[in-house]
Amino acid sequence: EDAAMEDADPENVSGASEDDSDSASEDDSDSGSDSDDGDEDVAMPDESATAKIMKLERRLESDPGDYGAHVQLCASLREWPSLRRRLRDAREAFAERFPLNETQWREWISDEVRATKGRRKRRGKVVGALFERAVADYQSVALWLGYAEFSLDQGWDVPARRSLYERALELAGLHFVDGHKIWAAYRAFELSKLELDAKNDPPAVAKQEETVRALLRRQLAVPHAQLDETLSACERWEASRPAKGPTIDPAPIAKAKAEAAARQPLERALAAAEEKGDAHALAKAHGAYLDFELSNEKSGSATGQGSARARAAFERAVSATPTSAQLWRRYTDHLDHVVRVHTLSAAAHERACRNCQRDGETWAAWIRYHARHRLEELGVEDAGAGENLDDVLKVYEECEEIMNRGVLCGPDTGDDALAIFLAQCHVVQRCERPSLLEERLGGRHVLTKARETLAEFYPGWVDRDMALPRLFADAFPAHGAKIWESYVRLGVEFGEHGPRGLNHGEFKGGEYAGVAEAWIGYANRLFESASRPFKGNENEDGSTPDADAASSARAVFKSVYARANLVSAHGRESGQARLCRAWLDFELRRGDPVTYAAADARAGVVLRRLEAEDRERKLEGPDPEEAKRLRRANDPNYKGPKGPGDGARKRKADDDVDADVD
User: Fold this and answer.
1) How far apart are CA 624 and CA 463, in angstroms?
2) Averaged over 319-338, what is the pLDDT?
3) Which end of the chain is more exposed for a tag (fewer CB within 10 A), N or C?
């Protein structure tokens, strides 16, 4: 009758049952040596397979972030048992760079189980560590069941096995469709103990019966697809007991059934999207599910599991769409601001970055979270000098490590790289004396690193909001105007006391020489730098400081307004029109009727001509090539050329294993 309670058997993920004959003597003889863990004396790969493997290894040497190459290399090596050690190294490199999916983890674990046949101690060390890493990557019912079976194979004691089942129930056990399998395995374990107690320790039977009964009651309070079957199994078990137990409380069951009914339409939408293979529909279905669970959590209408159910829904969603940066950001925001448990937030941020390695905002969110948490933990409010500065320095170094990891992953665009650097800049801004912090660090300022990286690896990219030049100038106010000038002119000299990396002519600059907004920023900074509070109305030569500052800025506008090849960072109009408009606006704010008239005679004439040409083009209709470009831009089915990170963003193994590597 107890056997009837096993509504689902744990899946054999580990394959441990194939080696249940491991004896104590074998354990004792296991020295833990890896001497026989290398390549077996079996067939070596043929010439074609060797060439394929070597080509994949070269691909990964040149681009360690090539997900498809990792998948293909592991698949190719797995075909040849003689290359077991190379396969293990390839998998380690893969897992270090990316989270592995359920299938990849199950294959790795299965291979290691076979490799440790007859050596239970080594299996416990190797396979146990793999299971821990596997369940940390994604919440998988199958992997948790395999881990539970592994604990049986290894002879874990009752408290350890019970603790493992409780960990599995926390999130995977809340899976609406498959979670019942974990409950069933847990129940089977407790029933097995009850049977042993009946034979070996009769006084403990009553207590163990209550343990089984409590487990059943807990499951009945959880909304799941098999709730009626669980209730029937519970009733059968209660009827089989010699002594009648307490009556089952119908209230929690009724509530769980109502919540299960509310989730059925959401489950059907998920199943339909998965069956069709429609990524957009799948993302939409998971989004609706998340909205439902978050609403329940907020209203407190869930059955005491609101926060856990919301997390379980997020885990299910990220498992289905692991490279959705927006989804991960929503998840980490929820953990950071609602759940507020540091261990959960820290782990989720790291997982998000491993899944969305080339998305800059994902890395930036991790840096900002880590800095906030650490500063709150240290109780640092105003970082100036002394102990506070030492604390901020530690936080800076920790965040810098995250920043460097993100940059080394090769962000897709300059915008992505900039987002990472700007997050680190905010850590520097926490210090009231950033120059002292920089001196203590003994290296280049993060702003200098950001500028050099963007100029070297993203040539032609433009900071649309001029955020980096503005931050750079604000961080070094004594050199603010020169910093802006260095963006538009080559070879600007800063002298010995300039920002590190720019003070010895190491960086040539001039990357925004053709960008209107950079020239406008330079002119405005010249005016701000040259303007000074003063007590009299005039200098000795009869001019006012504001007049001198305006003249300096005006000279910049005069030098470039006639350049027809200027571009605008925003692209809404030509760069020349943007600069001419900015000059006229400057004269309205800082000049007088005479200077405005002079500017209008130059920039105004050019601006009106450009506006007339623009109106004429609109009347004639768009250029055929431009019209074609616009149609493609608005066509969701058009597949243009791949961007620099498109290939590396593919994550599903099935998309890559058949790619041609010959």
Assistant:
1) 29
2) 95
3) C
**Whose CA is closest to 17, among 9, 28, 7, 29?**
9
pLDDT, position 408: 93
In the prediction, which pLDDT does 563 show? 95
CA distances from 590 to 62, 257, 547 (A): 54, 71, 8
What's the rounded Cα separation, in Å, for the pair 576 and 585?
14
CB atoms within 10 A of CB 43: 9
Using alpha carbons only, what angle is made at residue 390 by residues 388 and 392, rounded to the nearest 5 degrees? 70
- Return the ∠ at Cα 176 (arms to 650 and 292), rounded to 5°: 80
Spatial contact of 500 and 448, defined as CB atoms under 8 Å apart: yes
pTM of the model: 0.83
Question: Are the beta carbons of 479 and 499 closer than 8 angstroms?
Answer: yes
User: In 10 A of CB 418, how many CB atoms?
Assistant: 24
> In the structure, what pLDDT confidence band is assigned to residue 600 with cuts at 50, 70 and 90?
very high
**Helical residues (DSSP H) of 379-413, grouped into ranges:** 386-408
- Whole-number pLDDT of residue 61: 93
Q: Quote the pLDDT of residue 627.
A: 66
Nearest-angstrom CA–CA distance, 405 and 20: 43
Residues 438-458 pLDDT 10s: 555 555 678 888 999 999 999
Closest CA to 6 of 260, 250, 237, 242: 237
Burial class of residue 432 in the structure, from the number of CB atoms within 10 Å of its CB (0-12 exposed, 13-18 middle, 19+ buried): middle
Alpha-helical runs (H) found in 489-633: 516-530, 545-560, 575-590, 593-599, 605-620, 624-633
- Which amino acid type is present at position 53? I
What distance in Å separates the CA atoms of residue 336 and residue 333, rounded to the nearest whole number? 5
For 582, what's the count of Cα atoms within 13 Å in the CB-facing half-sphere? Answer: 24
* Rounded average pLDDT over 258-283: 95
Task: Specify the 3-state DSSP secondary structure of 98.
Answer: coil
Q: Which long-range contacts (CB under 8 A, 24 or more apart) does 638-646 make?
A: 643/412, 643/413, 644/410, 644/412, 644/413, 645/358, 645/410, 645/411, 645/412, 645/413
Average pLDDT, the chain: 84
The H or E element containing residue 224 is none
Tell me the C-alpha distance between 580 and 600, whole Å: 9
Q: Buried b vs exposed e over 592-625: b needs ≥16 C-beta within 10 Å?
A: eeebbeebbebbbebbeebeeeeeeeeeeeeeee
Six token digits for residue 280: 């957009």
Q: Determine how many CB atoms are found less than 10 A away from the CB of residue 101.
A: 19
- Residue 627: partners with Cβ closer than 8 Å, 6 or more residues away: 621
User: Got the DSSP string for 260-297?
Assistant: HHHHHHHHHHHHHHHHHT-HHHHHHHHHHHHHHHHHHH
CB 648 within 8 A of CB 60: no
3-class secondary-structure state, position 30: coil
Query: How many other CB atoms are there within 10 angstroms of residue 124's CB atom?
Result: 19
